[in-house]
Design a protein that fits this description.
- The protein has about 300 residues and is α+β, with helices and mostly antiparallel strands.
- It has two domains: about 160 residues, Beta-lactamase, CATH 3.40.710.10; about 130 residues, 3-Layer(aba) Sandwich (Beta-lactamase), CATH 3.40.710.10.
- The chain has a five-stranded antiparallel β-sheet. Strands 3-4 form a two-stranded antiparallel ribbon.
- The longest helix has 16 residues.
- It is globular and about 55 Å long.
- The site of glutamine has 11 residues, from loops.
Length: about 300
């Protein structure tokens, strides 16, 4: 496994340098696109790492998986899916177009920004601070790392430039999709996207999902099986946005990307894989990270299809 990961990083580097860090969040544009790291954690808790596996990055959209699980545990599946749909969009992650063209204005799925903002409005808590603390503590459990917290600089950078996300949230408030104050929901969303992790953290989250919700480290059930299965299905159909189809063909694993450069992948019953490479392709997914996953999946024949 160690040799395989080293080779995967060597292979992925060629593609990583062709990617570009996200610039629409100014703080993220500082990242070095040549960085690339990978971590694998199997369901017995054994781990292997290579490259920039311990470099911190912001979790960004990978947090949408945790937020969805928490919202479903808080409010129940039926209520959550009365506010957000279950269909892939074929549009970019921050697109607004389908909110108006599709009847009911329900965002199509919880992995795009609109859907994730709607989901955030359903997380239980007295106020934003309580809600973000609940979400961080859940992510700490999923990653088995109690040091995880959000990055103040990235949060401020996102919050001061999040015009598109504000547009999505205001549109959904008008359509009766969002509960509560728009700015409070957005504050939760920006903070959750700014949570700092590394490749090992997200590999552990992937390994927990691989075991249908049981932590590979403690053996404790953190998520009901039905909810673990639900989010893995969304990861397959919508986790890589409008690149989910091609990713399913080439890699064949449930995965979720973020514009910080992370991708969390899960191999059901076997392992979690976390990759980090801040050079993004034109769809906002880690260019080198996808290639690392493709390499590993092909060599170990991991596709679920
Ligand atoms: N914080 C980012 C945004 O709202 C998350 C998007 C992503 O990771 N794809 O645009």
């Amino acid at each position: 496994m160690q040799n395989l990961l080293d080779d995967a990083i060597k292979y992925g580097k060629k593609f990583a340098v062709q990617g570009k860090p996200a610039t629409y969040i100014p703080e993220l544009s500082k990242a070095d696109p040549g960085m690339l790291g990978v971590a694998v954690v199997n369901v017995s808790g054994q781990s292997w790492k290579s490259g920039d596996y311990d470099s911190p990055f912001t979790i960004q959209s990978i947090s949408k998986v945790a937020a969805l699980m928490l919202a479903v545990m808080d409010r129940g599946e039926d209520y959550v899916f009365s506010k957000v749909g279950m269909e892939p969009t074929g549009d970019p992650f921050n697109s607004i177009i389908k909110l108006e063209t599709i009847r009911t204005s329900k965002p199509l799925n919880p992995m795009i920004n609109a859907g994730a903002i709607a989901v955030d409005s359903l997380i239980a808590g007295k106020n934003t601070e309580d809600k973000i603390n609940r979400l961080i503590s859940f992510i700490r459990q999923l990653c088995h790392n109690d040091k995880i917290c959000y990055d103040e600089d990235v949060y401020k950078s996102e919050s001061s430039t999040g015009f598109r996300n504000r547009a999505l949230a205001n549109f959904m408030k008008d359509a009766g999709i969002i509960e509560g104050e728009v700015e409070e929901v957005l504050d939760l969303y920006f903070k959750q996207c700014s949570i700092k992790v590394n490749a090992v953290d997200i590999a552990l989250m992937g390994a927990t999902l691989a075991e249908d919700g049981i932590s590979p480290i403690t053996g404790k059930r953190l998520i009901p099986r039905s909810i673990a299965r639900l989010v893995k299905t969304f990861m397959v159909t919508c986790g890589m946005y409008d690149a989910s189809g091609e990713f399913a063909v080439r890699v064949g694993l449930p995965a979720k990307s973020g514009v910080g450069g992370g991708i969390m992948a899960t191999v059901p019953g076997k392992m979690g894989i976390g990759v980090f490479g801040p050079g993004l392709d034109e769809k906002g997914n880690s260019a080198g990270g996808i290639k690392v996953l493709e390499y590993i999946s092909n060599k170990l024949d991991l596709s679920i299809f």
